[in-house]
Specification:
The chain is α+β, with helices and mostly antiparallel strands and 100 residues long. The protein is 16% helix and 32% strand. A hairpin with an 8-residue loop joins strand 1 and strand 2.
């Protein structure tokens, strides 16, 4: 299981952690650039906890690529289970990641 510390190690840029209106309770977002893709990870726990596990992520392709963002449930930097079907916005995708 990958953690916030793993995101920091793999990121090509500074990692920005925050909680916003899209974040499910008990979780935070960590945005990084990994393999040239801007990725927002959903982690469980506190922003200050380097051992906070990854729950899922949204990969944001370049605007001119013509590709839609990809939401994935899983505990790794890459890999996991793509969330199939339409999700209205990032809040809906993050909620789907934590749904049992």
């Amino acid at each position: 299981m990958a953690t916030l510390a793993d995101i920091r190690k793999a990121s090509e840029t500074d990692v920005h952690a925050c909680v916003d209106d899209d974040t499910p309770g008990g979780h935070f977002l960590a945005t990084a650039r990994i393999l040239a893709i801007t990725t927002t990870y959903l982690c469980a726990g506190a922003q200050s906890d380097l051992d906070a596990p990854i729950v899922g992520r949204i990969e944001w392709p370049l605007i001119d690529s013509g590709r839609a963002p990809v939401a994935v449930r899983g505990s790794g930097i890459k890999g996991g289970q793509a969330l199939l079907g339409a999700w209205a916005d990032s809040a809906a995708a993050f909620k789907a990641m934590v749904a049992q």
